[in-house]
Amino acid sequence: MSSSLSGRFVKVSVPEPHVALVELSRPPVNAFSVEFWLEFSDVFDKIAQEPDIRVAVLASALPKMFTAGIDL
Questions:
Q1: pLDDT over threshold 70, residue 54
Q2: CA–CA separation, 59 vs 70, rounded Å?
Q3: Using one digit for the tens of pLDDT, what is the confidence trace for 9-35?
Q4: Handedness of CA 67, 63, 50, 56 (dihedral sign)
Q5: Which residues of 25-45 are buried (b: 16+ CB within 10 A; e: fewer)?
Q6: Inter-residue contact 10 to 38 (CB < 8 Å)
Q7: Predicted local confidence at residue 4, as pLDDT
Q8: Which of 1, 5, 35, 70 is the most buried (most CB within 10 A)?
Q9: Rounded CA separation 31/24 (Å)
């Protein structure tokens, strides 16, 4: 299931039952572009359709960097 939820810049895994771990992964600094925003939205739309997912945890796949240029 998690691989069908992931995209090019947003990786989704299910580390525990009912939990989606959503990791931003657009090196070098997770800067949001139009393409990134569209994928981000699409991933959360897909998660919302999953009846087994109850919570989504948003994190960065990049060490020491969450995002650059945006307060999210």
A1: yes
A2: 14
A3: 999 999 999 999 999 999 999 999 999
A4: negative
A5: ebeeebebeeebeebbeebbe
A6: no
A7: 87
A8: 5
A9: 10
More confident residue, 71 or 35: 35
Q: Which residue has the tokens 């989606």?
A: 20
Domains of the chain: 2-60 (3.30.300.220)
In total, the chain counts a number of residues equal to 72
pLDDT at residue number 72: 64
Bridge-based pairing state of the strands 19-24 and 55-60: parallel
Q: How many CB atoms lie within 10 A of CB 24?
A: 22
Terminal CA-to-CA distance of the chain, rounded, Å? Answer: 26
Q: Which two tokens stand for residue 32?
A: 């949001």
